[in-house]
Specification:
Strand order of the largest sheet: 3-6-7-8
Number of helices: 2
Order of helices and strands: EEHEEEEEHE
Strand content: 35-45%
Distance between the termini: 21 Å
Structural class: alpha+beta
Radius of gyration: 18 Å
Shape: elongated
Number of domains: 1
Length: about 110
């Protein structure tokens, strides 16, 4: 059990981090079978750079970049062509909110919390 008390759950030989995520996957499978969803992608990655300035050292100024990545739970494509990026969480942590703002701005997307 992790710090958020999630229980890893396996569906279709895929291990999900929580029952909530596994249940959402089952819902998506039903929507796909009904023809509403055309593609379900698990764990899509959204890399991004952050540029930082090193602490001031007399006579030296350094700027460096660090590559981060946000990993969503699902990218879902619907039959009408629209795409949803979905994260299944019990609540939005401060870290999630920070990454959400950055990734939404960079990629021009909306991340849904289910």
């Amino acid at each position: 059990m992790n710090k958020y008390r999630n229980i890893k759950t396996t569906v279709d030989n895929i291990v999900f981090d929580s029952r909530k995520e596994a249940n959402y996957y089952n819902t998506l499978k039903l929507l796909k079978r009904a023809g509403e969803v055309t593609l379900i992608e698990l764990q899509p990655e959204f890399p991004y750079n952050m540029f930082c300035t090193a602490p001031d050292i007399p006579g030296i100024s350094m700027v460096y970049s660090k590559i981060y990545k946000y990993i969503a739970d699902f990218r879902v494509t619907y039959k009408d062509g629209h795409v949803e990026i979905v994260d299944t969480k019990g609540f939005a942590t401060a870290e999630f909110k920070r990454k959400q703002k950055i990734v939404e701005k960079i990629y021009g997307i909306k991340i849904l919390l289910k």
